[in-house]
Amino acid sequence: MSRRSSPFDGLAELFDKLARQLETAARSWETEIDNRSRLDLSMGREATNLDLTDEGEEFIVTVDVPGYDRDDLDIRLTGETLSITGERERTEEHEAGEEMYIRRERELQSFNRHVRLPDPVDVDDVSATVNNGILTIKLPKLEFEGESHSINVE
Fold it and tell me: How far apart are CA 66 and CA 130, in angstroms?
């Protein structure tokens, strides 16, 4: 007796192949997320965007800070962790009893970003500027001088 072909023949094999491909994709996504999160120590998704680039002799951090003045920003370097905080007070444009807002979306009051730098930097030469709502921080890498130091064994 001959066996009739079924539309479900090969379906189990197809599902196995699909499962293997999804597993491979998920592993690559995890690796990508782990590499990114290793540098970004901020808790949760912050409302401001940040770029960290390696320019050879220095790292450049660029942060979107629209509406923030330089006095609203606090930048700290602790070890290899760069912390950027922006805080501003919202000014009330209309007093009670005057016009009401039809739409009000500009609620951002403060932000916090913490980024671990891949290599040590020269703290004395770090500089920061704000221009047109963009904060740029230049962090020169610490040069290895190649000196060796003797360590006594006790």
Answer: 10
Give the whole-angstrom CA distance, residue 50 versus residue 85. 12
Distance (Å, rounded) from C-alpha 114 to C-alpha 78? 10
May I ask the CATH architecture of the domain 41-91+102-140?
Sandwich (2.60)
Over residues 4-55, the pLDDT tens digits come to 667 677 777 787 788 878 777 776 665 544 444 455 545 444 568 899 999 9
Non-local CB neighbours of 53 within 8 Å, separated by 6+ positions: 59, 60, 62
- Sequence spans of domains, the chain: 41-91+102-140
Instruction: Report CA 5 to chain centroid distance, whole Å.
Output: 54
Which pLDDT tens digit goes with each residue over 75-102? Answer: 999 988 999 998 876 655 544 555 677 7
CB 137 within 8 A of CB 50: no
Q: Give me the sign of the Cα torsion angle 64, 70, 76, 77.
A: positive
pTM value is 0.60
Is residue 77 within 8 Å of 137, Cβ to Cβ? no
Q: From edge to edge, which strands make up the β-sheet containing 110-116?
A: 73-78, 81-87, 110-116
What token pair was written down for 54?
């390696």
